[in-house]
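Many introductory courses stop at the sequence. We go one step further.
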Amino acid sequence: MKKKLPTPIKDGLIGLAFGTGMIIPGIAGGTVLLIFRAFKKVVGAVANLFSKNFGRNFLILLPFGVGAILSFAALVIPLNLAMEYCMFAIICLFAGLVIGSLPGVTDNVKDEPRKKSYILSFGIFFLITAFVGVFSVIFPTISWINDIFRDVPTYLYFIMIGVGFFAAAGLVIPGFSGSLLLVAICFYQPILELFKFKNVGASFGLIFSFLVGAILGFVIFSKLMNYFLAKHRVGTYYAAIGMIVGSLISIFVNSKMFDYCKSSSFGLVDQILGPILFVLAIIGSYMIVRYLRTHKEPKENA
């Protein structure tokens, strides 16, 4: 008889995959949890964390959290270097991951009638997400972002709380990547740079502020997802799809990407490696979608 892994070890391994989804743009944490059939377990525990069952919910989340932190720590430095020396190629990889995984999200609404309210939901969230990157081109923000991360004014700590809050949406909205949002608003690389700890005090303070926002966002978005998936499931998925498609525009059309493509860093490595990674990412992430379809658990996706 096959021996099953003890639940804490199994959850810790899922946490490793979840942490990968946290830091790699294009891989949504919520989708990772769906693949390993842990979505309701984690989101339910987070949504009800601050209740009379705090101890029980905390113990449920602990192995996931440990695994996520370990994988996050392991990937910070490699991703930092990749974004510095071959940004276009890495963004192509991220875009491929998004496109390949998109059918896994659209599956949730493919048999549903296309109501005007659903199309409107898609359109609104598509425009909001796409405009984030376009806005940074029309009103260049990258120099301002670089300046505030260099000077570290007091208000940056509050900005980091807000950025962490909205990035946390990617942890619980299937198909939506919070780290991809950070790329679109040009905060992704500056946040990775903090882990070099060039200014130890400021780096710790900013990382802590981001984590405070992310924890708040994780709890609040978990509650919202529990509610909206129960009451407005189809409309919620249309909104998520709108954000995913809009983010594909924002990760390429933003001031950071424009500056990089005009610089000497953009060369043959990006031009050759980018399309290859793009295609491989689409194939790889779509294979995950196919696995999810084959091993679909109805209760998990309700």
